[in-house]
Amino acid sequence: MSVPGRAGGQAAGDGPGMDVRLLVPVLLGWVAVAAMLSLRPVVLALSAAGFAGLGVAVMHRRWRRRSWVTAVAFSLLGTSMCLVATAAGSSVREAGLVPNLASQRASATVEAVVISDPRVVQTKGVRPTELVMVRVSVHTVAGRGQRSKSSTPVLVFGDKTWVHVRWRETLRFSGRFDVADPGDDVVAVFNPSTAPESIGEPGCWPTSPSMFVRGFGRRCPAFRMTRGGCCQVW
Q1: Which of 71, 93, 128, 191 has the smallest count of CB within 10 Å of its CB?
Q2: What are the φ/ψ torsions at residue 139 (nearest 5 degrees)?
Q3: CB-count exposure of residue 218 (10 Å: 0-12, 13-18, 19+)
Q4: pLDDT tens digits along 46-79
Q5: Is there a contact between 89 and 107 (Cβ–Cβ < 8 Å)?
Q6: Do 28 and 50 belong together in one domain?
Q7: pLDDT in tens, 150-160
Q8: Packing angle, helices 41-58 and 69-93, rounded to 10
């Protein structure tokens, strides 16, 4: 005679557990991308080819029947795909004249789209001054007798005239490039010598990302606004 409650509890406990076999390939790919993120796209592509070659070599018929072959080969090939995607993204970011102009700290005139809210920071020193930090996506750059189009993220350190720029607004300005820190989310730093000239309105976009989130929060009561302009789900 069977006990229904006990049978039901045993059936519920015998369900499939969490499959963690993909955890090792995911961690290996994440570590490889994090360690090589600051490298040039060519180096990333060569590293991806190396991981792919190792993955194919491990699947040789000499070791194919080993129990560990599938996991190792999958990890190596997955890491290779992650590095290929990283190399492709870096190639798009570094296309154009911006990386070369930044390495030479050259002067240039750029046309860019604002992709962040302006943020005022206070410099340290004997005479502290206020700077405005704005992230822009450079679409056109002219410098050293050359002109090219790109889609390169650049961090601008401007004066108080930059505090009124709007998100998705297209600007034209001149100044000098500088190198960014390795592994930063921008390709270069720009120190403008002229005030930003608006050459394109943001259109129907909100004036800032924070205003967009605030409007969304008003329409969706399940979200709660935080101090930084982000939303948090209850």
Answers
A1: 128
A2: -100, -30
A3: exposed
A4: 988 898 888 888 877 776 677 777 788 888 888 8
A5: no
A6: yes
A7: 888 999 999 99
A8: 160
